[in-house]
Amino acid sequence: MEVYKFNEIIIGEDGESEFGFTKIIIRGPNGDLYYAETEDRFKTSSEIDIDNLDLISIDTDACWPLYSARLLRAPSTVSPDSHVKEPNLMLYRNDPKETPLSNHMLHEIEAYELLRQHPHPNIVEYRGCVVSDGRITGICLAKYKMTLLERMAESTPFNKDLFLEGIERGIRHLHSLGIVHNDINPYNIMFDELDRAIIIDFDSWQKNGQEFGRSKGTSGWMIEGAEYSLFENDIFGLSKMQEYIYNPSSWDPLNPLGMSSAKSSQTSTSQTSTSGPRDVSDSFGTAPESPVDGDKHNHHPGTCHSPRRRKIKTSIGAGPR
């Protein structure tokens, strides 16, 4: 057996965070998978003693959905300019009350299949399902240069007006199809080779007017207390994006899930893992879109507070693949 990957799970509340536990994914000799949770912390996988872990089997059928011929199938050999988004095993729990990761994967694929029929230059290019033994093990997408978060961190100049216009055009296109992204944030906007904005990561999407399920966007970048998938959610995210791009000093690098309450008047992560994760202009509309039903409003006060939640601190470590 070998350590496949491990991450520290961080517990956060109101801008504060603390170490919760380490979650470890173990891979057996036949490709079978297990997970374990421990209060110990590790710098490298070599420090982990598998024999001392209480291993729980991962039902891969609950992670990888059955492939259907109605879905686009990716080439058997993935090209270097593609990225394969796989189920995030860190979110797996052996709990019958939990919605299987396979369901979340199929839900995201549903959005990509619709967008395949209606592509847009500011929305991630979908290249099909990666299939093994009749099951979907990943979603093949075009690979892009870097996220907005990474670009802002390296301080390389770019045309901010044009970039925001690209995000706006992408959102307009989604809304024309009845799709609400519900998670517009710097992790989920990337740059292509021409420095165009590309909207990625559709694991929180819903049709306009639907009630949220398990996945409902990123705290600090969504309307506080939102219960419904509405166009106004993306408009709010776009307004926060404009604030982030034009006023980066209001962004707290130690609090990547939200705006720092000390620096911003509005205080401010998926079922599948990916590397690729604003005053709104008048042309987009400063007023929120009308909800489908009169009672389906996501009201948001002037200040958003992050609810207590688990979030995964990525890039802590990974074993051989």
Question: What would you note in describing this structure?
Answer:
The chain has three domains: 2-59 and 313-318, no CATH class; 82-142, no CATH class; 146-311, Orthogonal Bundle (Transferase(Phosphotransferase), domain 1), CATH 1.10.510. Helix content is 18%, strand content 24%. The chain contains four helices and 14 strands. The strands form four sheets. The chain has a five-stranded antiparallel beta sheet with strand order 4-3-2-1-14, with no helix packed on it. Strands 6-7-5-13 form a four-stranded antiparallel beta sheet, covered by helices on one side. The radius of gyration is 20 Å and the shape is globular. The chain starts with a strand and ends with a strand.
Summarize this structure as a short list of keywords or feature phrases.
24% strand, 3 domains, Transferase(Phosphotransferase), domain 1, alpha+beta, 14 strands, 5-stranded antiparallel β-sheet, 321 residues, disordered C terminus
Q: What would you report as the Rg, rounded to the nearest angstrom?
A: 20 Å
Structural class category:
alpha+beta
> What is the total tally of β strands?
14
Number of domain modules: 3
Q: Which strands sit side by side, in order, in the main sheet?
A: 4-3-2-1-14
- How large a portion of the residues is in β-strands, by DSSP E? 15-25%
Largest sheet: 5 strands, antiparallel
Q: SSE string, helix = H, strand = E?
A: EEEEEHEEEHHEEEEHEE
User: Which blocks of ≥5 consecutive residues have pLDDT under 50?
Assistant: 256-297, 299-321
CATH level 3 topology of the largest domain: Transferase(Phosphotransferase), domain 1
Shape-level CATH architecture of the largest domain: Orthogonal Bundle
Question: Which shape, going by the Cα principal axes?
Answer: globular
CATH class of the largest domain: Mainly Alpha
Tell me the span between the first and last alpha carbons: 12 Å
